[in-house]
Design brief:
Chain lengths: ~110, ~180
């Protein structure tokens, strides 16, 4: 069989299936999924978003609660300092007569 | 198309996403048929649609890396063949051709298109690639050598040995020149 005869034979008796009309659209959807979101895709993405937001909220609660647990101890230490100061200050504790005018005025 | 793009934008980095997509779509419109045929004559399967899609997706992902050293057609053809070979590996198809006994001898009503498909499957992948490029896509030996990045002599040799096997197969299955 000569080359030209073989080419003719193949051309006459075989063909390539045509591309689906939506092929480019399908390719483009895969190239740019964000730009071609449908309504359902929108809700699906919202679902993902809400899951993410919930995760962040839980993390914030955990962090914040730990922070609050530290506050009382700091506050207690501060109050203890004030208490110590007040207890040691002679102005409030001395019964020295020089302050007797306080009692006199009462 | 890409040469024009290179002229307008010396570096593809300067091309915006939308401009790049337009260039890509233009190429798809112009040469999808070539990519599709190249793959189809290798796999002879309805999976060709998926493989064409995969080829263009892979090409898109590495589009900005295209260095213009070869023609864009050569570049995308190599991607198409990589996709095809991956398909063969995934589906555990023998890479050196089937060489199976064809049952067409007992069935004179067999469609010629089926016979051609079976005949192509008796060729090794290298032979099938060269054969379909020459006889089905009409490329010259020089073009085949550029596309496959092999010497012209090797291209001729592959086409010639593939032709012999294919024609012998047709003859064994009752196809004469006049049929």
């Amino acid at each position: 069989m000569k080359d030209n005869e073989l080419k003719d034979f193949l051309n006459k008796n075989s063909s390539v299936p045509r591309a689906p009309e939506t092929q480019w659209t399908q390719i483009q959807k895969k190239i740019e999924p964000a730009k071609t979101l449908g309504v359902m895709d929108y809700f699906t993405s919202l679902k993902g978003l809400s899951l993410g937001a919930s995760g962040v909220a839980i993390a914030l609660v955990v962090i914040f609660s730990n922070y609050n647990q530290q506050l009382p101890s700091q506050e207690l230490a501060r109050l203890k300092k004030v208490d110590t100061f007040l207890a040691s200050d002679s102005y409030f504790s001395d019964s020295d007569p020089q302050y007797s005018w306080v009692g006199d005025n009462l | 198309m890409l040469k024009l793009a290179k002229l307008l934008f010396p570096s593809l980095e300067e091309v915006t996403h939308d401009e790049l997509l337009l260039l890509f779509k233009n190429y798809y419109t112009a040469d999808e048929g070539f990519v599709r045929s190249s793959i189809y004559w290798m796999v002879n399967s309805s999976d060709v649609d998926d493989l064409v899609q995969e080829t263009f997706l892979r090409a898109w992902k590495s589009f900005r890396k295209f260095d213009n050293k070869s023609s864009f057609r050569t570049w995308i053809y190599r991607i198409a063949m990589n996709v095809t070979y991956d398909y063969f590996k995934k589906n555990k198809v023998h890479l050196e051709g089937f060489n199976e006994e064809y049952v067409g001898k007992e069935n004179p009503e067999i469609e010629l298109s089926d016979l051609i498909s079976k005949g192509l499957m008796t060729l090794s992948l290298e032979q099938r690639e060269a054969f379909s490029l020459h006889y089905q896509l009409g490329l010259k030996y020089l073009e085949i050598s550029e596309l496959l990045q092999i010497p012209v002599g090797t291209a001729k040799s592959r086409v010639s040995s593939a032709k012999k096997i294919f024609v012998d197969f047709l003859n064994e299955n009752g196809v004469e020149n006049e049929r």
